[in-house]
Amino acid sequence: MRLFPLLVASSLAYTLHAQATQEQAPPKPAEQKTLDPIYAQASRESARDHEYANTTTIDAKSLQSRQATSLRDVFALDSSVSVGGATTTAQKVYIRGLEDRLYSVNIDNASQYGNLFHHQGNITIDPMMIKDISVQKGTPDAYMGAGALAGSMSIRTKDARDFLRDGQRYGALVGLGGYSNQGFKTHLAGFFALKNTDALLSANWTNILGFSAGDGQWVQGSANNNKSLLFKLNQRLSERNTLTLSYNGLNETSTAPFATNLAERNVTLFAHTNYNHTATLGFTRQADSAKPSSTQVRTNLYFNQRSLYLKPLSQAGANDHHEVGDKNIAFSNVGYNLALSNQFSVLDLEYGLNYQGVFVADTAAPKDAINRAKESGHIYGGFVKTTYTPSEHWVLGVQSRYDVFNYFDKNNQTHLTQGFSPAASITYLPTSTLSLRASYAYLTRGAMPGDATLLGDKDVLIHKNLRPESIQNIELNADYSGSIFCARVAGYYSRLGDFINSYAHDHDHSDHIHTPGEPHSHGGLRQNMHAPIEVFGYEGGVGADYKGFSSYASIAQSFPTYKGYLLQDTYELGAVSGIIYNLSLQYEFPHYHLRFAWLSQFTQRVKYKGYDIYNDQTGFIDKAGYSVHNLYINWEPLGEKRLSLRLSVNNIFNTFYIAQTSPFKNEAMESLDSSVRRAMPNPGIDARFEVGYQF
C-alpha cells in the first residue's frame, strides 16, 4: 500500500492551555479563541464542540443525551477515536490508531496507568460520573504528561453545582431506564451547595443481562453488571483557596470466557470481577486578582487501585489456550502533583513537579526464585511550559518534561531509564475565525510495569537492558470557526522508537536471566523493538449551526506501520481500521425543550498485508466494513434539570458487525496466516428509554 500520498500534513499538536489553566484569571482573547480546550455549555450539542482537530472535548450533557453506558457511546461522535471490544469490560480506546496505553489518562488528576489484562480495557469509569473529557492528541498536557507518548486524556467527574439549578441550594435526582437488549439502569444522587461548601453523593447501577448481535444470535459472555459510586466535596477556605476531596469507584462483574473480548465456544467460563477505586485530595490557590502576575498553585495527592479477579466456573474447555487460569491482580498508583503558574502581559508560565509510584502483583500466580509475580515502578519528574503571545496574530508555545523511571521487574532486575520530553508549537491567526498551527514533540517514556497477567507466566521473561521508548510527533492543523460554519483539518506523522513489546517471541537467548541448570525460555520476552513504528494519518470535519439546527461531518484514518507494512493489531500499541466517516444531525425545539438527533458511522473495509510484531512475520488481514446508525430523542417538558425523558435507538438497522479495532488474532504467539478472527461482535439493535426527575 502506498502510504505517503495519504499524508495530508504532519502530527499531533500540543494544546497550549489545559483545563486547569482555564480556571485561572481570564485568558487573553487570542489564547481563549484558538488554543484552550472548550467545554461546551450549551443546552444542546453543537458543531462548535468539534472546532479543534488536535483536541477532543466531550461534556456531560452530550453523554446524557446519548444515554452513554460504554466508552463506545462516549466517543461516538469523533471519527478519530475508535473503540474495540463489545462489552464494557473489554473496551479499549484507540486514538488516531494508537491504544490508550500510549496516552496519559487521569481521572480528577489521578493517574490511571496500568494494563491489567490484554483481553480487557484500560479505562474504567461509569459515564454517568463524567463532567467532561479533554483529549489532547500528539503532545500531552505537561502537568499530567509523565510517561505519555501520544497525548493525554483528562477526565473530570461531576460535583454538586453541575446538578443544581440557579438559586437552588440542595436537591436530589432519581433516574430509571430500560434497554430492549436486556438491561436496566438506576441512578440516585443527592447534593447541596452552601456559600463555601458543596457536596455530591451519586450512585448508579447498570445491569446488562446480555445482548444479541445483528444476526440475532445470543452472544456468550456479553452480560455486565456495573455498580458505581461518586463522592465529591469542595470546601472554599477563603476567597482564593479551595480544598477538594473526591472518590469514584466502579465494581464490574460478569460471567464470560477468560478472554472477554473474544466470542469462543467450548471454553471455560470465568467469574470476572473488576474494581477501580480512585481517591484524590486537591488544593487550589487562585492568583491574586489585584496582581495578575502572582502565582497560582494547584496540587493534589491521589490513590488509584484497579483489581481483577478471575475464577473458573466450569471444568477446562476443549478450546482453552495455555494462559487460562485463576487471577488475583491488584494494580495500584499513588502520586503527588504540584503545578505553579504565572501570567504576565504577553507570557504565561507554568512549572511543577510530579511523583508516581506503581505497584502490581498477582497473588494467585506461582512464584519461584526467578519469577516473583509482582513488579513496581517509580516516576520522578518535573516540567515547565511557556506561552508567548507577541501580538494578536501569533502565539508561540514551548514545554518540556524531564522524568526518571525506576522499574523493578518480576525477574528481580532493576531498570533505571530517563529522558527529556520537549515540545514546541507556533500558531498564526490571520483572522479572528481562522488559526493555522504547526507543532513538534519529542517524548520519552521509561521502562515501567506492563501487562499484569504475564506476572505469573514463567515462560515470559524481561530483557535485562530495557531502553526508554521515544516518539517524535509532527502535526499541521487548520481550524476555522465562523458564525455559522466551522471546519478543521489535521495531518500528522509519528515515529515511535524502542517500543517495548511485551509479547515478543524469545529470539535472543543471551540477553536475559534464566533459571540456573535449566534451558533458556523459548516462550516470550519483553524487549525493545529494533525498528521504529511509524504512523501517518489525517482527520478533518465540517459543521454548521443555524438556529435550532446543528450538523457535523467528519473523516479520519491512520496508518500505523512497521518495516513498511501496516501493523497487525498489537496489544499495548495500536490497531488498523479503514476510513471512518461520521455524520451527526440535530434539531432542537427550544420552546418545548425537545431535541432530535441522528448519528451515522461508516467504516470502510480494510484488506492488507500486515506485519505481526509478535512473531516477525507478515500475513493477509481482511476486516469487513459496516455502517451503524443511531437515533436520539431528549425531552425536558418542565425545563432543564427537572423532568427528563430520553429515548435512544442504537444500531437502528440491526447491523451485524465486529469493530475493526477489536483484536484480529486470539493469541500473540499464534501464526497470523492460521488465525481465525474470533472477536466478539457488537450489539444489534438496542432501544433505551430513561426517565429522570430532579427535586
Automatic annotation (TrEMBL):
A single BP term in Gene Ontology: siderophore transmembrane transport
Gene3D superfamilies registered for this protein in UniProt: TonB-dependent receptor, beta-barrel domain, TonB-dependent receptor, plug domain
UniProt xrefs under SUPFAM superfamilies: Porins (SSF56935)
Keyword annotations: Cell outer membrane, Membrane, Signal, TonB box, Transmembrane, Transmembrane beta strand, Transport
Stretches assigned to the TonB-dependent receptor-like beta-barrel domain: 235-652
Location within or outside the cell: Cell outer membrane
Domain TonB-dependent receptor plug: 53-151
Gene Ontology terms for molecular function: siderophore uptake transmembrane transporter activity
Primary site of residence: membrane
Highest rank taxon of the organism: Bacteria
First and last residue of the signal peptide: 1-20
One Pfam family recorded for the sequence: Plug
Topology class, membrane: Multi-pass membrane protein
GO cellular component, as recorded: cell outer membrane
Coiled-coil region(s): none
InterPro entries in UniProt: Beta-barrel_TonB, Beta-barrel_TonB_sf, Plug_dom, Plug_dom_sf, TonB-dep_rcpt-like
Record-linked PANTHER family: HEME_HEMOPEXIN UTILIZATION PROTEIN C (PTHR30069:SF41), TONB-DEPENDENT OUTER MEMBRANE RECEPTOR (PTHR30069)
Family: Belongs to the TonB-dependent receptor family.
Protein name: TonB-dependent receptor plug domain-containing protein
Provenance organism: Helicobacter canis NCTC 12740
